[in-house]
Amino acid sequence: MQNARGKAFVFGDDVNTDVILPGKYLNVTDPQELALHCMESADPGFAKKAAPGDILVARKNFGCGSSREHAPLSIKYLGISCVIASTFARIFFRNALNIGLPILECDEAARGIRPGDEVEVDFDSGRITNVTLGQTFQAAPLPPFMQNLIASGGLVSYARKNMGK
Known about the structure:
Shape: globular
Distance between the termini: 22 Å
Strand content: 15-25%
CATH class: Alpha Beta
Strand order of the largest sheet: 4-3-2-1-5-6-7
Structural class: alpha/beta
Order of helices and strands: EHHHEHEHEHEEEHH
């Protein structure tokens, strides 16, 4: 799995799936169109400001609310390379991994990264570096199986690859 490096976009506690992607877009099936509405309830210009490789940072309970996969899909297809949060809602955590969106839990990083900081993530070690401030934080790295699942593009691609189809 490749390391991630990008500009940080920082959000607070309890960012729910309706904030990540408003429910009025649940009938949209094109993931590129979903990406255009990512985080628009919290920051209407987010999708235009975020660039491929950027990193989304939030505090506790990121992705709470409904279990829709649309929320992590909008983040992934916007090109966000990683989501770092103090904690994730469990269903969001699982949905993100299932669709191949890298996520890491690290409260210290979530509290120490400011909007616009340049951040680098080493997925093998779980090391998160705030390049702007010269600070390093340690998250628990994802196990190799999960890294392979993400690198494959998610659970369905991983299963197809490993089933020989």
